[in-house]
Amino acid sequence: MGFTSALSLYSLSHPKVSAGADHSHSHPLKHRLQSEANPLTVRRRCLRFRSVVVKAAAASGRGRRVYSQSQPPLINAPVKQVASFIVPAGVFVAVTFVLWKLVEKLLMPKPARSSLSAAENKSPERGMKWSFAPGTNLLSGFTAKVDRESKQKLNEFAKQLRAFRSVDMSGCNFGDEGLFFLAESLAYNQILEEVSFAANGITAEGTKAFDRVLQSNISLKTLNISGNPIGDEGAKILCEILVDNAGIEKLQLNSADLGDEGAKAIADLLKKSSTLRVVELNNNMIDYSGFTSLAGALLENNAVRSIYLNGNYGGALGANALAKGLEGNKSLRELHLQGNSIGDEGVRALMSGLSSTKAKLTHLDIGNNSISAKGAFHVAEYVKKSKSLFWLNMYMNDIGDEGAEKIADALKQNRSIAIIDLGGNNIHAKGISEIAQVLKDNNVITTLEIGYNPFGPDGMKVLSEILKFHGNVKALKLGWCQIGAKGSEYIADTLKYNNTISILDLRGNGLRDEGAVCLARSLKVVNEVLTELDLGFNEIRDDGAFAIAQALKANEDVKITSLNLGNNFLTKFGQSALTDARDHVYEMNEKEVNIVF
Q: Which GO-annotated molecular functions does the record name (predicted)?
């Protein structure tokens, strides 16, 4: 482009040279030689070459092309000069514009098609959409495809509600809308006995879906709405509906944000219901007032069998109110009050009420209630009198050795308690010795849970000596009792003689390899009872694992079906040895041993 501009300027400054150009075609070779000899001629020739025009010979029938040269007038030279600058600039602008439009088209989103189907073009509804993976929600704004899949899943749930006796829909998060959708199927099924809608994001509004459904369904026995924030308002709505229901026997409203007003609604329902047997209200916010309402219901209701109030805020006053209700009740069999901070005063009132009631209580849970040795005395007095109590849980209190001694004295007189949990009560060797003495003359206790008590090897020694030939303990739970390798020697020796213990829990006792080796020696001896052995959290390494593996191989009549060595320090070598032992036992006896690393 620069070269062309120079030629144009030269032609303007030398008009004579340009005008006098030779246009002859008679001697082309001569003309070429002359041009090559003269530099000026070369430049003029380049200039003229730009104006060559191809003309078709119209007159000639042979179609031969004739090339002629035409010299433009000098007045067009300035136009050429300007064009030489404008044309390239114009081309640049045009290309830039095209590229800009292309990029804009690629980056800008496409507009929605007007030809969408009615379902796809419909604006999403407000609120949550239905989701069926536990712990997930589909917010409004998801595609119609997801909405269709959700409704399809709901249809599948509806079919289950129409066809099966027991349906578990917990953790699906279908919310109030989903429950309304499924309610019709619930009314339709006359064979469904148990349904769980737990953890589905159902609110008080959603409980209205049961209206006119539960009245017509008399086959449903268990309704679980736990883990849904229905609150007091939802409890009121649900209880008003259930008043006319003659089928529900078990109502589960755990972790449902219920307070005293919700408990009052449940109490009013209990006063009128003759079919409700089990009421679960665990982990709510029920206080003294709510406990008082429920106590009043117990005075009038003679149908309910079990009440679960674990993890509420009853306190000593709530326990006192409940005790008064128990005095006039004849039907209650299970009372669960774990984690209500009732304390010594509360347990005193409660035991007084239970001692006066005509109800034959079989299960009593007063764990984690800040009960000391003083409170243990009142529990012991009730245990001495009870002839129906089968299961007693005092886990995670603080009765100590003094309280353990009182409970032991009561157990010597009691002949009904088969399962007792005294774990986590700060009982040392002295207290465990008192508990152990009970087993000499007691063949009723089959499960003894005394874990999380620091009685150490000394307490283990006394207990092991008695368990060699006495008692009827089938499940012995001694986790986190600080017995160490020395204590494992005592219990290992017991296993050689004992013929009742089938479940042994020794987790977290610091047995190490030495303790594992001691137990392995006992496992080599024929033991026709022990089936489950838990040695987790004991700092056992490969040497201990090798010893246990060899014991399993050596005992052809081994009865163990479950061996837990999880959370120890085994390498791949120890794990491999245990795996080989497991395979060996299966090959020899065709018995499966479940070994956990």
A: GTPase activator activity; small GTPase binding
Give the C-alpha separation, 435 to 79, whole Å: 119
- CA distances 522 to 33, 160, 394, 534, 562, Å, are 121, 52, 32, 15, 16
Residue of higher predicted confidence among 274 and 75 = 274
Buried residues in 337-353 as b, exposed as e (16+ CB within 10 A) = bbbbebbbbbbbbbbbb
Distance CA 506, CA 475 (A): 11
Q: What is the pTM of this model?
A: 0.76
Count of positions (residues) in the chain: 597
Tokens of 304: 């309910």
- The predicted model gives 20-28 an average pLDDT of 40
pLDDT band per the 50, 70, 90 thresholds, residue 164: confident
Residue 547's contacts (CB-CB under 8 Å, 6 or more residues apart) are 513, 516, 517, 520
**pLDDT tens digits, residue range 418-462?**
999 999 999 999 999 999 999 999 999 999 999 999 999 999 999
Give the type of residue at 541: R
Residue 358 buriedness (CB in 10 A; 0-12 / 13-18 / 19+): exposed
The answer to whether the beta carbons of residues 381 and 409 sit under 8 Å apart is no
- Burial category of 473 from C-beta neighbours within 10 Å (exposed 0-12, middle 13-18, buried 19 and up): buried
- Looking at residue 36, what is its pLDDT? 43
CB-based burial, 529-543: b 16+ in 10 Å, e otherwise: ebbbbbbbbbbbbbe
Tens-place pLDDT, residues 319-351: 999 999 999 999 999 999 999 999 999 999 999
Whether residue 506 contacts residue 540, with contact meaning beta carbons closer than 8 Å, is answered with no
Structure tokens at 51: 């104006």
3-state SS assignment for residue 116: coil
Q: Would you say 209 and 179 are in contact if contact means Cβ atoms under 8 Å apart?
A: yes
Q: State mean pLDDT over 176-182.
A: 89
C-alpha pair distances (Å), 252 with each of 161, 177, 268, 289: 19, 21, 16, 21
Beta bridge partners of 135: none
| Cβ-contact 530, 560 below 8 angstroms | yes
Q: How many CB atoms lie within 10 A of CB 191?
A: 10
Tokens of 67: 């090339």
Whole-angstrom distance, CA of residue 229 vs CA of residue 199? 9
Provide the 10 A C-beta neighbour count for residue 272.
14
Angle between helices 373-385 and 400-413 (to 10 degrees): 0
Which residues lie closer than 8 Å to 354 by C-beta, 6 or more apart? 323, 326, 335, 361, 364, 382, 386
Percent of the chain scoring above 70 in pLDDT: 74
Mean of all residue pLDDT scores within the chain: 82
Place of tokens 């089968």: 390
Q: How far apart are CA 366 and CA 569, in angstroms?
A: 37
Which amino acid belongs to residue 562?
S
Helix and strand element counts for the chain (H, E)? 21, 20
